[in-house]
Model the fold of this input.
Amino acid sequence: MTILQIKKRVAVVGAGMTKFMRRAQETGKELAFEAVHQALESSNLRIEDIDSVALGSAPDAFDGVHMKGEYLLDGAGGYGKPYSRNLVGGGTGVFSPIHGWFHVASGLFDTCLVVAEEKMSSCLPHPQAAFLTIFDNMIERGLGPNLIWIFALEMQRYMQKYNIPKEQIAQVAVKNKRNALDHPSAQIAQKITVQDVLNSEVMAYPVQRLDISPVSDGACAIVLASEDVARKITDSPVWLDGVGWNLDTAYWTNRDLYFPRYVANAARMAYQMAGIKNPRKEIDFAEPYDPFDYKELHHMEGLLLCRKGEAPKLTAEGVTERDGKLPICPSGGLLGVGNPIAAAGLMKICELFWQLRNEAGKRQVGGDPRTAVAQAWGDLMQIGTVVVMRS
Amino acid sequence: MGYLTNVAIVGLGITQLKPSTPEVSYKELIFEAAQKAYADAGLDPRRDVESFVCSSEDFWEGTSIFDEYVPDQLGAAQKPVCTICADGMYSLATAYMQILTGIFDVVAVEAHSKASDIVNISSIYDLALDPVYTRPLGLNANFIAGLEMNRFLHSRGATKTHCRMVAAKNRRNALSNSLAMNGGNMKLDEEDHQPALSDPLTSEDVAPIADGAAVVVVASEKVAKTLRKDPVWIKGFGWASDSPTLETRNWTDAAYAKLAAKQAYKMAKLNEPVKEVHVAEVDDTYSYKELQHLEALGLTGNAMAHTLLQQGVFDRNGTLPVNPSGGSIGMGNTLEMSGLVRVIELALQLRGEAGSHQINGVQTGVAQCWRGVPTTSGAVTVLSNR
Done:
């Protein structure tokens, strides 16, 4: 790979998000509209000021709408504009700002509105049913696998490799649900104990109910601008200084699941672009993807924020608490704020934006953070998408 | 605007388009196209291609999160790979932007169609309608196209015969294109011998669904010049959307194509498209769409497309050959791959490698796509061999 070097700097200048909830009364278009409206308001822009729109939304099967991007178009602000939709499964939320970054960093557009929307509740009886259709139609689908048990395989492998007790993993759920108590958009902020997690219903061992993020509806939006335009819009732009994404083989059964090498590949790409040589020292806080509690630990290792197998120990020592040395998911993450797939990833970018501007209110991490990383993951335990932001 | 680099198309790979392909899977189709494109560019995907952009919509594939299944057959595992849910021409635009940012020098773009696996395609089209407002009305794709065709013909004073002439031209052109599956000689004097699908639309106005795969490799100027003597340069790109709702869109003028063309021409510094464009490959998913799109692209000047058509301007030996490849009506409608087929055919013309449908002396051309009913989205690109 050639030396990655950003030639044109891109900033985030505004962000907005709806409340995340189990069943929103609004249609997908309306959710997208609300997030876009907030993002524009926070950057003091009007839709006329936006040159291009990048949308992220996970599978059409949730809504039962074919070409969901075309359907969401007007709600997402795409009318009369260059508008397109990306899809990289669960990685979509953090890929969307990367997709938007292409628009601005290429020099083709001065501004790009990035929108991520998900309305899972329209899938009946339960959105997990939509996930039955993600498996290979010849080799796997006949076996009737579902997402929870393939993640149970991965969790089991991770625990077995490093001999991790379930209690240490459960601590992630406790921390994130508590962090979410300070997030106004959170869906399942809760004060729970490790014992609560261990006593919750077993879904597919070792995955239990409180290990998993909920099903949600919601939308997020951010506004990107080129350096010169961003400086006119705001005094405190937050820079999108590194982007990385990486897709591993579709034959997930042939991989050792203990370490997400595709996340590490994506992280290395983003760090190289941002000029980060030692992520453990240079990253002030992180929002790794946490749809399951063990995934936060898995992804901390994938993001090279600690040694392999070290993340559970750091969590047990309180390093990853909001007031710890390396705060992880200060927003409350997917486990606390909710998991409307694509929107959940962009929620992490919104959190970086607010934290790096010192606008996160009660969630604000200490020590005047300057550099942070957000990450999402998806497909068949296969893709990593990583964004590094600086104030 | 000054861009950091110029971007060129350096590799083309496409399979034969067919009504059905029971002998191969979509992975094998994509593999064939990828192999051809890499060989054409003289590249090893594992070593030389830095990023991959794919195109798919889940419901066409019958698999959710279809982007899972693209890396292996492209040689793309453990590389930056992403999927754009749109026509392959949008993916090409994404690859174009990736190279302009300066982070990559070589990017591959993939699109495919395994439409023959879709048991009931009209029921998939139905699911693209707004679930609250329009889907309950039970409109189907051909009905919506018929409605728009009626509006277009009425506003221009054109007739069904003009549309049949488009279909006849494109199927005739396809006879000399070895990739095409629907070449033929249509008899124009037997007017109305086809029953209406949704008056005025007949089955002859509709491009038949086809299977196939296409891969295009693009590179920065620095690398493109080392790879080949005849790179095809991307001079301009535009893509745009009109209103998605049936109730509020422009039914007459293909507003999306106008907006996209404006953006692409501005970038390409193309002030007089009528004079400067030598050949066009435009969307003809329905016959009337070719006429509507030509006007929106500004390729007809002040005249109406159907009058120029009658004068033979768009014939292969006319002053502005349109769809010399046969278009979607002559080659087959490959869903999200259609736009990439237009790009490949245009690039072949600009390289002088279009074989028996080559037009002599072409330097600059326009390719355009539309995402089909019920969308109002499409892209335009200006390509040149200079």
